[in-house]
Amino acid sequence: MKKKRMVLVMAVSAMCMMAGCGNTVKDGTEALEQGDYDTAIASFEEAAGSDDKEEAAEGYCGLGMTYYEQKQYDQALEMLEKAFDNGTVKTAELCNLAGTSALCKEDYAKALEYIQEGIALAEEKQGNKKQEDKKQETLLQEMKYNEIICLEKTADWEMAKEKMSEYQAAYPEDESVAKEAEFLQTR
């Protein structure tokens, strides 16, 4: 859980540095990093209410991450979508958060959409680098597994089997998917 929080905080911090965000977003980011969700929410809500569209987008993004950390997936997804609507650049990490939030609230079609978008972004980013980034590869693996789950939940068995086969070829060391692969063979 702490590892995931650090990924979230790093994503908000990177976004904040690139955009030169205001103090409210910085305060919210620091509070999120410390696990002080009430303070984070208050800071990010203030930023989301800004007339500056970029600051508002950062505020919504921060709110999405804070709600995600609290396992409030409905609110997390709503805030992430508002962030995207206000101009937040979609990254593999943010698409994964939105997809995972949709998956947790059983909106499998929306989850699949975000996860596939995140996979495409991660693969594009990975293709643009000479050295493989372990964090990016771990994120990509997580999204590819979640894609299989979404396909199962929408009863797209053939595509789920195909994606499972691709997953096992790409990640043969992941023995935890053996039962899932066996289940898919019965479909």
From TrEMBL:
A Pfam family annotated for this UniProt entry: TPR_16
Positions of TPR repeats: 57-90
Domain of life per record: Bacteria
Protein name (Swiss-Prot/TrEMBL): Tetratricopeptide repeat protein
Annotated organism of origin: [Ruminococcus] lactaris ATCC 29176
Keyword presence, NADP: no
Record carries keyword Signal: yes
Residues making up the signal peptide according to the UniProt record: 1-19
UniProt KW keywords: Signal, TPR repeat
